[in-house]
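User: Sequence in, structure out. Go.
Assistant: Echoing your sequence, followed by the structure tokens.
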Amino acid sequence: MAVSVPAVASPVETAPTPPPPEVSPAPPSKNDKRAIHLRRIYVLGRLTDIAAERKRNREELIALLTEMQTVTDPARRKIVRHRAAYIRQRTAVLTEERAAMASENKLLLSQIRGTSQPGPA
């Protein structure tokens, strides 16, 4: 009668494999460059939209805060408070999105500069 011993993997077999060495990427194709430029156009447009929305929110919040000081109706006061809270939350989200878009814009610029070929001197 044969006794079977459960196979135990050695530490060498279970260790995660290291990542492959970095290989310099091939030069980007024209389609890649086009995609980078199109993405940058979108990012710049979105940054403009974010700035405009933040400005509108700031102006609306100022108006709501002045209204909150003068309003006496409890129902209206509740609506104003809720709207002001929403604007504050939305402003925080827009701030994070603006930071992400700005960093993506920097990355895209570095990719564009890295892919552009120097012109004749």
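User: And one key feature?
Assistant: The chain has a mean pLDDT of 82.
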